[in-house]
Amino acid sequence: MDSLTHIALGACMGDAFAGKQxxxxxxxxxxxxxxxxxxxxxxxxxxxxxxxxxxxxxxxxSILFAVLITPLLALVAERWHRPHxxxxxxxxxxxxxxxxxxxxxxxxxxxxVGWLEPFSHHRVAYNWIFVADPFYSIWLGIAFVALLILKxxxxxxxxxxxxxxxxxxxxxxxxxxxxxxxxxxVRDVFKKQQIAYTHYFTTPTPLNNWLWYVVAANDxxxxxxxxxxxxxxxxxxxRFIPRNDSLLDPVAGHEDLQKLIRFSKGxxxxxxxxxxxxxxxxRFGQMAGWQNPDARFVFHYFLEHPGDNxxxxxxxxxxxxxxxxxxxxxxxxxxx
Length: 336
What we know:
This protein has 336 residues and is an alpha+beta fold. Helices cover 46% and strands 14% of the residues.
């Protein structure tokens, strides 16, 4: 999830854990604890784009890192916040829960997390929710603001914690149910439209959980399309995108290329833009692809001009969005 959501969630959990003993310092402590795995952002200071993509949500989002950092943070907090009546065992439980919830939530979107680093480079991604979903974050944000305003001994603080964490958790469960329904519908569509595939995935489109991006891979490329929970017909308008592996022959030994293939989990397509060779990560979809089937992919990497690749993903995620783009998203969510 986005950093602000992690901060709000951590602050609510911190208040529930030690608000009575530490006051609003508990919110700060919880926000820090929930944000610790995202310390990997500092790797951008010395890594190039392809290395940074693998470093983000890599080791600092692993089970091993969570196990190592939890007792260290517990010891620091236990000494920093004396006097208190919180045992070291409770501190360890608090920081452990914060770390593992962070790992669990980040695994819910398509970027994935390296839970098993450094022993395995496999990235866990079960594609329940978009990386920034206001319908998940809003409840935590409201609770966060309420906790900042209310005084330490106000009896309503506990209610607001339950409201924020409870409503966001219910929404996550709702997203999981949506995922099950979409996957069921998509498999039915594959069969009905005779779409041959070796593997597929579905993932939500930006800022919602009702319109889903669908990718069906085969040996030569991908059938990509969109499915809304409100579509009345069991039908998806697919567009075929060739993988074009042969275009990679001149740069097959490129170290960045191997890292990008690993990062993409094999879901990639290669194109020529004039005289430039471009690597597209299919998983992140196209820029408002439901509106323009020929739009460029959100993540693209210039293999022959690596110096131009800084912040490719961040630059492309909402590039070209305007009022019409947002309206087209709403129309497509409503269903065909």
